[in-house]
Amino acid sequence: MIDGLEESRLAPGTFEELRAAGDFALAVPVEHGGQGASAQTILRRLIELGRTDPSASWVVGVNVVSKTLAGRLGAESLLKDVYADLACGSGRPECGRGTRGADGTVTVTGAWPNVSGCEDATWAGVALMIDGVPHFAQIRVADLRIDRTWRVAGMRATGSQTLVAEELVVPAEQVAPFRPFGVNDVMLFALSVIGPVIGGARGALDATHAMVASGRKPFMSAHASIAESPGARHWLADATHLIERAERTAFALAAAVDGDDVPPADLPRWHMEQAAIARDCRAAVDMLVDLHGAGVFALSNPVQRFWRDVAVASRHPHLTAYLAVENYGRALIQQP
């Protein structure tokens, strides 16, 4: 797996590895030939992938969300095709609009930015407005234009380009009105973001252990190696604790998703936990960067890539801390 700095997408070989490993079938129900994996299994796999390549983990997470949405909102006749390979999508209805024709078809126009993996996906599930009501359309990526707009500091290899539809006529069976999602689904969608973030933090920790084991001497220090420094050991312990705490919190969230239906009243608390995971991972990776020193920013050093990826991915809307605090505070005030 590579960073994709120049191409802003995963290497073709990476997709073959993911496909061969069954990662695109994680969220596909067993009756459709998939794994029907639990939230805990999905989270574990996303973390594992993220330790090597957070962008690959992210694309797999987007595929999980896209196929879950297709299963909830898509027509049964389309599911075999949508489930067959990589899927992508955007949940932003304000980005597109549709007009119904007399024959039931829908003419779609829109531009959906930040659609991860779209250059290699077969189907895209995109949200749009029809007569003032949010809808969901399953569209073949081959019928859309891809504008290569993804120019970012981190998560570069996700290939999160813009999908464009220009007066595209879509069959009626490919369009359906949005229906409310259960809390368990909303939390699963958050896990698709959390897994790559924790995986990236784990990857930075792995690289730091390798650096410490190499016996590298700290610059401007009397220590013969970083391992001899009490401060460095303390820093490493604190960073490890933060990552382990984030992981424990994430698996508690996944266990709740796999259990009974989560009460809507619990969602603000879980949003707080999600935001805490992001903060813990960012703080831990910052400490690991400090242990490496300024040399960590050489492009040949994998830690700078994990640092960039975690910094970007952990600021996804699912993990926005100030909104989580706002919503949780509102919920607490409304309690008797």
Characterization of this structure:
Helices cover 48% and strands 15% of the residues. The protein is α+β, with helices and mostly antiparallel strands. The chain has two domains: 12-177, Butyryl-CoA Dehydrogenase, subunit A, domain 2 (Beta Barrel); 183-334, Butyryl-CoA Dehydrogenase, subunit A, domain 3 (Up-down Bundle). It is globular and about 80 Å long. The termini are far apart. Mean pLDDT is 94; it is low at 1-5.
Query: What name does the CATH topology of the largest domain carry?
Result: Butyryl-CoA Dehydrogenase, subunit A, domain 2
N-C termini distance: 52 Å
Residue runs with pLDDT of under 50 for 5 or more positions: 1-5
* Topology pattern, helix = H, strand = E: HHHHEEEEEEEEHHHHH
How many structural domains does the protein architecture include? 2
Largest sheet: 8 strands, mixed
Q: What is the name of the CATH superfamily of the largest domain?
A: Butyryl-CoA Dehydrogenase, subunit A, domain 2
What is the number of strand segments?
Answer: 8
Query: What's the total helix number?
Result: 9
Determine the structural class based on helices, strands and strand pairing.
alpha+beta
- Name the overall outline: globular
Report the helical percentage.
40-55%
Domain Acyl-CoA dehydrogenase C-terminal: 195-319
InterPro entries: Acyl-CoA_DH_C, Acyl-CoA_Oxase/DH_mid-dom_sf, AcylCo_DH-like_C, AcylCoA_DH/ox_N_sf, AcylCoA_DH/oxidase_NM_dom_sf
Keywords: Oxidoreductase
Pfam families: Acyl-CoA_dh_2
